[in-house]
């Protein structure tokens, strides 16, 4: 080093300066290239090694790939009033085959059959031999089945993620919620009527239904159907103030997961689509019409000793009292003759318009599409007025009956049935339509209570809860007139009667009398006990305390109802 | 002079380059982590959807009733068995009516007339909330006991 330095020292003048400048430039250029190559090398390492780990096969950085499923539109849930899931779409895998890639179709088919015993051998083999690039083999398989298939490792079998609709409550809410097909389209119930809305996803569709009440109602109707060997049954629980349907049952029912295979008889919705002549329950409306449209008094008497003859028809009573009855007595003994007289007093046009106001003559505006149109006599003659007063010759759905009753007992304000929970205050009575006066509503409450304390509905009484109601026993129309042995027995209950909040209806189609019911299969023996047990369950489910007034309540209409002793006394006087 | 400034520029260039590279890498890492967390959230959300559907399936009233009648020494609820006075510790909590009352005045009057009279006449002793425990406390207690 030293000798080199010494050598430099000898160079002097302009030569030396040029040389130094050239050396500096060389170093500068050299280092520029070194740095540039360094940068290129670093960038190459970055792109090939580091970035490679962060990019997917399409060259898109992984952090820029959109997060899945948040953007995919999942069909909205359906929930009950407490948020219990009634229908939800869940991601499941479906199995399909690229048949061109399947090497040994026979072996694959056998293996598939081990995992899915329900698959048909022939059809599956045919699909696998078809050489088609896409054939569905099995939709919506379980994760366990999927892992078994992956373990087998057959080429050509692939999975596609799909949304599968599940109904955690099974058949319990089948007729309301409905069912949807394998591609997610609604086939029945709310799934069909709200198909577009549900398909958009988002917030769940909230119903007014309470699954606990629904279960209680279903349990009791199904018990009664077994006990009385009934063919079918239906029931509705409604909030009388708002028209909200809290439970609605149609039996037999079906499994919504298996909709396509179910029988039509099971799919038929008996509470809103089925229309029935419901018999004496209609006396609620004819009596209300009498009180509302005429100057009637409670003490008014009706001579029901002789049947009424209209043309070739004869109107009789099932249990003739053979005496003159007061208005409350006609109601509690369920006298057809008395009710027909009321119908006649009200008049055809008035009765028709009253029924129309209550929504009994038109199909109700309900959120599901399975709604039956009532069968109304056409033309409506005088005899129809008389029979319609006790529920014959006019057929309506249980839902209509319950909402019309709600309108009468809630103080007289019209309610319409609803199943989808509204965001507005359901008891907002601005612009509400009045169908009967508060006085008539009050009288009807008293009359309904009398049926349970003194009349045909005694089996519906629940101590402390002030149940009121009306029995209904109707003969089913068959070929050549009404069939005396085929009945529709029902009970229309309301509680608590001092301030009605709930209307409970239950009916059984073609019940047979039992030993315990002394061979009777009427509304009082079949329907009333159902309502009693449903009310009992509702009390503990909803936490309804017993009514205080109940302890000291005296029905002021009692003075129009003769006791057995009084009747006996009068009869002996008459004989002597 | 040239030497010092050249060297300084070089050092600065390398320094900023490294810093830039480091920042870029840490941003990418952070984005990767964010992506992972987002994916986890989606997966968890999906399993929550399945689990809550399963929960409602397992809690459907029909099944609960069957299990209760089979495994517990309990009877079906009947209206005359329900006591709404409370305070004895036998009414399970929480006792919040699920259907909000539209007519509170008729639901507030819990005490029946007979019961009221019996209490006033001293025939019936009312115990006010005897060591009533909340569900949380009961669960905590059970865990401590184990």
Radius of gyration of chain B: 34 Å
Let me know the largest β-sheet of chain A. Answer: 5 strands, mixed
Mean pLDDT of chain A: 86
> What is the architecture of the largest domain in chain A at the second tier of CATH?
3-Layer(aba) Sandwich
Shape of chain A: elongated
- Tell me the name of the CATH class of the largest domain in chain A: Alpha Beta
- The number of helices of chain B is 5
Q: Low-confidence stretches of chain B at least 5 residues in length (pLDDT < 50)?
A: 86-97, 100-112, 126-135
Compute the separation of the termini of chain A in Å.
160 Å
Unreliable parts of chain A:
none
Structural class of chain A: alpha+beta
Percentage of residues in DSSP E strands of chain A: 15-25%
Largest interface: A-B, 64 and 54 residues
Our measurement of the CA-to-CA distance between the termini of chain B, rounded to an integer number of angstroms, reads 81 Å
Number of distinct beta strands of chain B: 0
What's the helix-strand series of chain B?
A: HHHHH
Principal-axes shape call of chain B: rod-shaped
**How much helical structure, as a percent, in the residues of chain A?**
25-40%
Q: Quaternary arrangement of the chains shown?
A: heterodimer
Summarize the structure.
By secondary structure, chain A is α+β, with helices and mostly antiparallel strands. Helices cover 39% and strands 17% of the residues of chain A.
């Amino acid at each position: 080093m030293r000798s080199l330095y010494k050598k430099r020292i000898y160079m002097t003048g302009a030569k030396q300066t040029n040389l130094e400048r050239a050396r500096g430039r060389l170093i500068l250029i050299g280092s520029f290239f070194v740095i540039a190559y360094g940068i290129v090398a670093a960038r190459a390492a970055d792109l090939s090694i580091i970035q490679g780990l962060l990019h997917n096969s399409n060259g898109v950085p992984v952090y820029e790939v959109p997060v899945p499923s948040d953007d995919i539109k999942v069909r909205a849930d359906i929930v009950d009033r407490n948020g219990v899931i009634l229908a939800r779409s869940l991601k499941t895998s479906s199995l399909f085959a690229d048949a061109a890639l399947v090497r040994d179709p026979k072996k694959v088919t056998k293996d598939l059959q081990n995992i899915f015993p329900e698959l048909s051998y022939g059809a599956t083999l045919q699909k696998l031999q078809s050489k088609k690039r896409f054939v569905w083999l099995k939709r919506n398989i379980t994760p366990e089945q999927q892992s078994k298939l992956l373990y087998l490792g057959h080429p050509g079998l692939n999975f596609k993620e799909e949304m599968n609709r599940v109904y955690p409550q099974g058949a319990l809410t089948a007729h309301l919620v409905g069912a949807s097909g394998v591609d997610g389209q609604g086939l029945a119930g709310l799934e069909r009527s709200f198909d577009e809305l549900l398909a958009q996803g988002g917030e769940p569709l909230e119903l007014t239904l309470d699954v606990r009440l629904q279960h209680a109602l279903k349990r009791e109707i199904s018990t009664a159907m077994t006990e009385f060997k009934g063919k079918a049954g239906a029931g509705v629980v409604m909030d009388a103030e708002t028209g909200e349907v809290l439970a609605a049952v149609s039996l037999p029912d079906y499994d919504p997961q298996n909709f396509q295979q179910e029988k039509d008889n099971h799919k038929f919705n008996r509470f809103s689509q089925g229309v029935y002549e419901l018999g004496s329950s209609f006396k609620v409306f004819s009596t209300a019409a009498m009180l509302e449209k005429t100057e009637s008094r409670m003490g008014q008497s009706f001579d029901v000793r002789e049947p009424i003859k209209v043309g070739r028809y004869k109107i009789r009573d099932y249990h003739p009292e053979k005496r003159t009855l007061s208005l409350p007595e006609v109601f509690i003994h369920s006298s057809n003759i008395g009710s027909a007289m009321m119908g006649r007093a009200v008049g055809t046009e008035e009765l028709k318009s009253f029924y129309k106001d209550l929504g009994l003559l038109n199909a109700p505006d309900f959120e599901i599409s399975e709604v039956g149109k009532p069968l109304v006599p056409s033309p409506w003659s005088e005899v129809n007025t008389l029979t319609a007063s006790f529920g014959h010759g006019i057929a309506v759905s249980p839902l209509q009956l319950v909402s019309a009753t709600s309108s009468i007992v809630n103080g007289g304000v019209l309610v319409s049935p609803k199943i989808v929970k509204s965001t507005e205050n359901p008891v907002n009575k601005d612009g509400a339509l009045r169908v009967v006066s508060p006085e008539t509503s009050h009288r009807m409450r008293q009359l309904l209570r009398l049926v349970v304390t003194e009349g045909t509905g005694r089996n519906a009484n629940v101590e402390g809860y002030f149940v009121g109601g009306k029995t209904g026993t109707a003969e089913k129309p068959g070929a050549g007139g009404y069939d005396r042995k085929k009945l529709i027995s029902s009970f229309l209950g309301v509680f608590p009667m001092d301030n009605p909040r709930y209307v409970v209806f239950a009916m059984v189609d073609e019940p047979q009398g039992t030993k315990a019911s002394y061979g009777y299969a009427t509304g009082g023996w079949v329907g009333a006990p159902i309502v009693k047990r449903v009310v009992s369950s509702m009390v503990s489910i909803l936490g309804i305390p017993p009514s205080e007034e109940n302890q000291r309540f005296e029905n002021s209409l009692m003075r129009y109802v003769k006791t057995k002793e009084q009747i006996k006394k009068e009869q002996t006087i008459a004989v002597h | 002079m040239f030497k010092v400034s050249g060297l300084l520029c070089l050092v600065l260039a390398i320094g900023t380059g490294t810093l830039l590279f480091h920042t870029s890498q840490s941003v990418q890492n952070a984005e990767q982590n964010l992506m992972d967390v987002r994916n986890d959230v989606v997966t968890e959300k999906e399993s929550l959807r399945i689990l809550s559907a399963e929960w409602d399936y397992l809690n459907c009233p029909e099944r609960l009733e069957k299990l209760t009648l089979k495994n517990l020494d309990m009877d079906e609820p009947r209206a005359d068995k329900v006591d709404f006075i409370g305070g004895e510790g036998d009414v399970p909590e929480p006792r919040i009516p699920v259907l909000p009352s539209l007519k509170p005045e008729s639901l507030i009057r819990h005490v029946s007339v007979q019961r009221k009279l019996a209490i006033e006449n001293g025939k019936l002793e009312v115990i006010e909330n005897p060591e009533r425990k909340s569900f949380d406390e009961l669960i905590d207690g059970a865990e401590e006991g184990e």
